[in-house]
Each structure stands twice: as structure tokens, then as C-alpha cells.
Amino acid sequence: MNLNRIIGLLTLVAMMYGANQMSAAERKWIPVRDRIEQAEIFFPHHPIHMHFDFPVEKKEQQGFLDVYSAPIENGLFMFCSLYSPEFSGDELAPSLFENIFYKSIIQRMFYRPQDFQNHQTVSYEKMVMNGFPALNFSMSFEEHGVMKKLAGISILRDQKLTILFYLASEKDFNEELFHHYIDSFHFLEINS
User: Fold this and answer.
1) CATH no. for residue 44?
2) What is the pTM of this model?
3) Which terminal residue of the chain, N or C, has fewer Cβ atoms less than 10 Å from its own Cβ?
């Protein structure tokens, strides 16, 4: 290997390391407003927005899923708004939430959804966020020999389940970025 290639490789590694170590304050966070959810959250760059309608059995109304997704160097931020006329208020019970999360989001959004079912660890904690019932959740799983960590918050409001999460390899999971992202979320005041 010649000297130029070695210098180029070392520069690339240094840039990747520096990008992974970039603090929340060093990033330019962009506000994103979801008009359906009447909420705002900040992303590290403009996210991709997707909308899915899906039928709900024996109901005239359809359910929907709005997703904002922003990949970064070694991770992914997602803001999901899930509506179903069948939501009864129990959707933050850990077993029911895990089922909804897997079927409505993971199966639709990830290439190998079965990897998410191979939990190494999983934890749930009920809480209140923005004045609404919420569930703090975290799970780790193995994907292609790499341990991954997914952590987030789910909030239940008006038959809508708001799910915010950050996914990265366990070694690259940045707690500061995760908390900055989650703390930026708030519901907008609805003008009457």
C-alpha cells in the first residue's frame, strides 16, 4: 500500500471517528413540525417523511402511520405517529406496545424485522411526558453479528401513539444525542 493510500485511509478513519464523537451542540438541529400530530421535534438534518394508510378491520376509519426518519453516521433517528380507531388507552402496556411497535413500524420500515425479536435485553418504564402517559423503552439485539441498541419514548394522546427512538450499534450509541433528540419533542398549542 502506498503512502497516499495510507494517509487517505487514516484521514477517513479520523473523519468517521470525529463525526461519531460530534456532540449535540456541534450539530445543526432542524425543527420538524408534524401537522397531523400537532408536534415539533428537532432532527440533525432534514428527515425523510413517509405516510402509510392501513385498513383497520370492521371500522369505517382507516389507521395511518406517519414516519420521519433521519440516518446519521452510525445511527438512525425516527419520529412515528401511529393512529388507530381501535386504540383504547392500554397501548402503553409493555406487551401490547411491543406488539404494536413490531407490527406497525419494524415490519414496515426495516429490512430484517426478525432481528428485532431476538432481544438480548429489554426494559420499559411508565412515565409522563408533555402531560401525557408515556413509556420509556430500550432494547438490544444482534444484527449481522453486531449488537444494536434501540431506545425511545412512546406517548399516548387522542388515539395516537407517538414513538420517538434512536437506533445505533451499542458501541456507537450516543446518550447525549439521544437525550437532545427526545428533549426537543413537544406538542404544539392548538389554536381554537
Assistant:
1) 3.40.1000.10
2) 0.81
3) C
